[in-house]
Amino acid sequence: MSAEAVSPIATYFRVCDGVRVRFADNRADSDITVLLLAPWPETLWAFRRIWRRVSAVGRVVAIDMPGFGHSDGRPGLIAPDTSGAFLARLIDEWALGSPHIVGPDVGTAAALFLAASTPERVTSLTIGSGAVRFPIEAGGSLKNIIEAPSLDVVRGLDARANIGHAVEAGAASDSEPEVHEDYVSAYDLGRFAESARFVRHYPEQNRVLRDLLPTIATPTQILAGRDDDLVPWSNNQYLHDLLPNSEIHPLDAGHFAWEQAPEAYGDLVAEWVSGGYRRVGAS
Description:
Radius of gyration: 17 Å
Number of helices: 14
Order of helices and strands: HEEEHEHEHEHHHHHHHEHEHH
Oligomer: single chain
Number of strands: 8
Strand content: 15-25%
Structural class: alpha/beta
């Protein structure tokens, strides 16, 4: 089965700041640009079920952030604040203007640091499903990775088996084997432990983010599954309480809301970037 038969997303590679980044681009000629940040431990194919819906309203660029998915990385970039700074450079180098950022999961923290440091580079945010609360509230394997005494503990895990189990809810191995393998292979051969550096920065960086959130005026839409056992709903409510220009939408889904409730997720993103973001304040 070809990649095109599995997903409407064709992927390419491009270098930014010396890092080879895997990306997709519908290359639409539009005044609206949407930048999608792939969740962890998935890849930009996580957006395959909302791609056509969001592509209908503008230009859509999706990326695997440095150190995630099939993008290259270096340790200094695999943290929320440095990922945010990298996104600012990417937006400039790739001439994306001031895009709408859609950043679920690990994209949430990166997008918030981006909006806090360079608000002029962002028109709006769609975030959620990220363990950004302070004090931290996380569950299951995510909690274990954050609290592990060292990265060596994470290195000792069977990454292929653990990731395969984790992503089964979003891309089942029997019904979508190529997507499932794209996810699992992205974090094989030690890459899972390296990517885990990002969430292991949460204890100190969530404290910083707590003080930044009230200063972020960027219109923000918070989308997440109400039944997420990895990132409890309290994380999303926390964002809504502290961000001055936000609205929140609980979806009938678990952690992988973009795949488990794609019609609702895609429709909310499309309506938001088409002008709905103006409801909650000027960008």
